[in-house]
Amino acid sequence: LYALRFFLQWINSEKAHQSHFSPSFWSISLYGSLSMAFHSFIQVQYPICLIQSCNAMLYWRNLTLMRYSKQNLMPLSKVYALLA
After folding, report:
1. At residue 37, does pLDDT exceed 90?
2. Could you tell me if 63 and 30 are in contact, meaning their C-beta atoms sit under 8 angstroms apart?
3. Mean pLDDT along residues 17-45
4. Closest among 10, 28, 6 to 19, alpha carbons compared
5. What is the pLDDT averaged over residues 44-50?
6. Which residue among 16, 51, 72, 78 has the highest number of C-beta atoms inside a 10 angstrom radius?
7. Are 57 and 46 in contact, with CB atoms under 8 Å apart?
8. At what angle do helices 23-42 and 2-16 cross, to 10 degrees?
9. How confident is the model at residue 73 (pLDDT cuts 50, 70, 90)?
């Protein structure tokens, strides 16, 4: 999955003549990370499972940011308040 996302991003960037990330890039990344987390959980490698789960959250966040317009996003101050 990671090689597939790389090649899709490369082809799309070459077509656009600039760096381009499509939602499919983040979707494939998310599925790859979740499958790696599941595999590491089965192999009882919990630190790797935790790292892949954190990566999956980042991919999900990027995918969500691409799908919604800036008007619908939560203000950054509210995000900091929730994290605190």
Report:
1. yes
2. yes
3. 87
4. 10
5. 91
6. 51
7. no
8. 170
9. low
The tokens for 83 are: 């994290």
Counting beta carbons within 10 angstroms of the beta carbon of residue 29, is it exposed (0 to 12), middle (13 to 18) or buried (19 or more)?
A: buried
Sign of CA dihedral 39, 54, 57, 28: negative
The predicted model scores a pTM of 0.69
DSSP state of 17: T
Closest among 14, 13, 11, 23 to 65, alpha carbons compared: 23
Supply 29's token pair. Answer: 């990344």
Residue 83: exposed, middle, or buried by beta-carbon count in 10 A (0-12, 13-18, 19+)?
exposed
Joined together, the tokens standing for residue 12 give 């799309």
Tokens of 22: 């499509």
DSSP state of 13: H
Instruction: Provide the 10 A C-beta neighbour count for residue 66.
Output: 13
Q: What is the CA radius of gyration of the chain?
A: 15
